[in-house]
Amino acid sequence: MKAQTAQTAEEATVDLLYSEAEDDLRAAVRSLLTDRADTPAALARAESDAPYDPDLWRSLGARMELAGLLVPEKLGGQGASHREAAVVLEEIGRAVAPVPFLTSAVIATETLLAVAAESAEVGTLVRELASGHRTAALVVPFSAGPDSVRLPAALTGTVSAVADAATADVLLVPTAQGLYALDAADVTATPLTPLDLTRPLAAVTLDGANGTLLAGPDATRAAVRRGLLAGAGLLASEQLGVAEWCLTETVAYTRERKQFNRPVGSFQALKHRMAQLWLEVVSARAAARNAADTLATGSPEVPLAVAVAQAYCARVAVHAAEECVQLHGGIGMTWEHPAHLYLKRAKSAQIALGPAGEHRSAIAALMDLTAP
To answer: What is the mean pLDDT of residues 19-26?
Structure first.
């Protein structure tokens, strides 16, 4: 009986530390993004009509084979886990890299994997996404949370604010009748002006569209929830990356910037602010790693871990970005400094895949906490 209890406790242990393989993956991704997605490149992309860098995505998705991280080897992927995907998203957040990893390699891929047994077309599409040569977007509003998405009755109407719909090759449209795959060339995706210029949004008009039915209604609802739940959980790692960059750059700047012949970082008031921010970032790392680990192990605690990670990490990323802008002084307010890109990424991610209030309500329901 004692041995069984010890085994159960060991199985329930969550590993928040990074493995050697994850550290190697981080180093490789950071090296590539440093070379190919530096600040001048990010600013130039934000000002252009093509915010995404297809060459960068080919390098990440196809050459480094990161597009298939979550795909089993039998379907042409790497057979890795959400822990490795979380590491990649941390680095994407640190660089505010304009690539569709979250929407295609995580949300769309997870949705398809949930219905992989439904039809042969699904397996073929998963292999194409895992190769990195094609991308997909799930046609739901980017603000929709795992438990709040509303599916249209059929392939009709317009779905607004769909992330990466204008750049995707395939659109996955969940309806009350089932999950459809549509060729993006056959659908009208009207680009919108987003707050975060490094993550484009579009309004997708479905009227008259013809698609391939991939799964029935019940399987579709479960698949969409799985895709959005994984997306929300791993978005916390991207928010962690944003917060870490903002903290690192702010500390470095306040060490160099001088007033009254001394570094401004030596002023006690600023020390307290940055110490508080460091504590928040460390706590955000624990929450994000917990969400990634529970997703990777298929723990029954996934909904709770994801809700906690999103409710906390979204606020920390915004706070870190706001402090970065303010403590950089005048230069932090300019377009030439990248701080505004991080603030916009943090603010837009704050309401993505369910706002914090929705996730707090989920925590209350899961923990049976009665509202006052």
So the answer is: 95
Q: State yes or no: pLDDT of 137 exceeds 90.
A: yes
Task: Identify the pLDDT of residue 268.
Answer: 79
Contact at 8 Å (CB) between 292 and 83?
yes
Residue 40, judged by CB atoms within 10 A of its CB (0-12, 13-18, 19+), counts as: exposed
Residue-by-residue DSSP string for 107-175 = IIHHHHHHTTTT-HHHHHHHHHHHHTS--EEE-S-TT--TTT----SSS-SEEEEEETTTT-SEEEEEE
Q: Please check the confidence at residue 231 and state whether its pLDDT lies above 90.
A: yes
pLDDT at 4 over 70: no
Burial 144-167 (b: 16+ CB within 10 A, else e): bbbbbbebbeebeeebbbbbbbbb
d(CA 372, CA 365): 13
Closest CA to 57 of 20, 19, 102, 17: 102
**Mean pLDDT of all residues belonging to the chain:** 89
Nearest Cα to 250, choosing from 313, 342, 336, 312?
Answer: 342
Q: Among 83, 139, 148, 76, which residue's Cα sits nearest to residue 111?
A: 139
Token digits for 300? 């029954």
Q: Characterise 53 by phi-psi region: left (phi > 0), alpha (psi -120 to 50), beta (else).
A: beta
Cβ contact 291:313 at 8 Å: no
> What per-residue confidence (pLDDT) applies to 372?
58
* CA end-to-end span of the chain: 41
